[in-house]
Design brief:
The complex is a heterodimer of chains A (about 525) and B (about 250).
Chain A (H helix, E strand, L loop, with lengths): L1 H13 L10 H16 L39 H9 L27 H13 L21 H14 L1 H4 L36 H10 L20 H13 L12 E6 L19 E4 L1 E2 L14 E8 L3 E9 L9 H6 L8 E7 L20 E7 L9 E7 L5 E4 L7 E7 L2 E9 L16 E9 L11 E2 L3 E5 L6 H29 L3
Parallel strand pairs in A: 1-4, 1-14
Antiparallel strand pairs in A: 2-4, 3-13, 4-5, 5-11, 6-7, 6-12, 7-8, 8-9, 10-11, 12-13, 12-14
Chain B lengths: L4 H21 L6 H19 L3 H16 L4 H23 L19 E4 L2 E4 L10 H4 L1 H18 L1 H4 L31 H10 L24 H15 L9
Antiparallel strand pairs in B: 1-2
Helix pairs in contact in B: 1-2, 6-9, 8-9
Classes of the chains: A alpha+beta (about 525), B mainly alpha (about 250).
Chain lengths: ~525, ~250
Amino acid sequence: MRKRAILLAIMLAAAPGLALAGGDAAKGKEIYEKRCWWCHGAKGAGDGPAAEFLNPPPRDFTSGVYKWKSTPFDEIIPTDEDFVKMVKGDINHNNIAGWNGMNGTSMPGWGDMLGTQDVNDVIAFIKSLAELGAPQKPAISISGAVSSSKESLERGQKVFKDRCTECHGEEGRGDGTKKLKDDLGFRTWPRNLTKPFTFRVSNKAKDIYTRITVGIPGTQMPSFADPSSQKKLTDEERWDVANYVASIEAPYKKPTESTVINALRVEGEVPDKHDDPAWEKAKYTSFYMVPQLIAAERHFTPSLDTISVKAVYNDKEVAMLVAWDDRTKSLPGNAKAIEIADGDVFEDAVAVQWPVTIPQESEKPYFGMGDAMLPVNIWYWKSESGAGQPQSFKLLNSKGIKDREERDPASVGLKYSAAYDKGTWRVVMKRPIKTGDASKDIQFEEGKFIPVAFAAWDGSNKEKGSKHEMTTWCWILMQPPTGSSVYVWPIIVGCIILGAELAWLKSTRGRKKTGE
Amino acid sequence: MKIPKLLQFAVLVLIAYGIFKAPGWFGVPIPGSLIMMYMFFAVVTILLVMTSTEKSAQELFTPIKALVDDPSKAMTRNVVFAVIPIIGAVIVFNQVKPSFEAPVELRATHPAPPSTLRAFNKSFNIGTLENPMRKLAKEDPAKFKELVKEGGVVYYRNCFYCHGDKLDSKGHFAQGFNPLPLPFQGKDTIAQLQESFVFWRISTGGPGLPKESTPWLSSMPIWKDLLTEDEIWKAILFIYDYTGNVPRSWEK
């Protein structure tokens, strides 16, 4: 027994790198080979069979570089707690329903499958791949927090303009002007800071502060605490900008459970342009978009993640405003667009899909461009195909991916307008409620749940044709004005009950009087 | 101490309501209109039971009668008489006010498969079809292990986006699909299915489903267009192996 203890002590002394509080690298290797190698690679080099389909790519453990750590910029090794959080997943996150891993990546949270000991074992193993020991420096201190006052936010905004916009864009939508690559040459897109549900860690001020103090190792996101950097910020400035970033969240962009767009009835004209005040009363409904990985040429590494839609209508027309954040305005042939794009530049685009006939029963057209029995209408907008070229707008009737007819939108009075501003596309599409031909075009109806689906393309992310992001069927409801009729029945019922009560009261009084 | 009958009645009705609402707290809500109907029957049943004997009926109704009979309760009566019509009106309002909740789309997750499957220029009899690689588990365990691993590679190049890195249906794109992908973990998933069924589901995907399973909604790709027959069988070996599940056999 004692011999073994001594042996263990010698082993630990000889291999400090393998010593995570009780982690057994050999056991960890077994877990790794069952659960992790598919992405992180047989030898941990981030080159598993799934890797080529992932952006961000799985971490290369042989490099020993970790992104989501809390030790200072000049300490490459994360703390044990950091490792546990990376592997288990962090429940304090701005959660996406059904996902417990690192948001915006394919790295799942393993806390529900691996016990504490398993997690420690697997961490010991991956640390051994780069012979990492314990960090020499402790995690940075977050005790100097500056509270998020109006003054702090104002100061933070200034710092942001100065230090962050070149990558994260003026409004923080990730639409910077720099092409970014990580140390291994993979494309990295700076975070859209208005969408905290895409943050790997969280948008609490302390986590943002940690990020800018530590930097994101292996990427171009620097440490702003590095005294040798010209960009260095004081501790207070870092808290100010963290407060500011936490404040620019746009909550409406995070999809909720609701799958219904409530179209609002308006008096007067239905707007043509996205900046018309008539839109203000209507509310956005947002949906997750996923890459098209179902048929034909598939797409696995999307750069668009959600789409937000609102709609208004009157007696004659219905209009919808489709808005989505796209980091790049993709202009084919344009030098600036080419420089920032990943590969060839194609147009940006969006498409809205409707069943030609509003389903009476539950049966709908196939969500991927309809089917032979139940065709769909597709309203398909594309940005300029080159400097000085017009945008394009098409009306398609589709019976599946291989069978579609192109029509002139003007023939049914279908119109559009589109504008790109600081990382957001806003496209308005508008059509008369009824057209001449019910066999070819959807005839909108008030008060009915109408299926609708969306697709979008980021031309700077190699997206074209069948490579795009999409939603499945959602709903739109042209919501008739609530009117007074909904109050009539409750009042009638209330009165009837009251009447019955009084009648009862009267009858007992009557009985008493007659001396019963 | 004896609990007044009227209070008993109120408590029982509340319990019934709680029971109908309970599934909703675990994510499988009963639609509101059904709850209304169940509650109607529940209230009628409770009333019938509580008025089954003359005595208990009297006990139940005395406090109500007292409201109108007993002049000292005039104040309570006025309050009750005012509140009840309001409650009635609110219930009716909730029924008639426009609803913005999406229609519920019911679907059969595990429909009966067709008897034959046409794929890979062949016809498969689903009633008798078996995984041709399964027998290697006993005959050549080393080879079998290799096939499972190859199946894993198929899985992590094609399926995990939706069905999850952990085969728990929580892939990194899963939240964008409706209906959600199905899990393979747990004893109530693929362990309940024959491999021939799974082979059919994978080969023909969402569009291969019968109408009661809403083929127009399912994002499950048609894998016979994208994978080979062997790749599908290997992927099946993998999803059973990883989750520790055993396919349902024909005898059971």
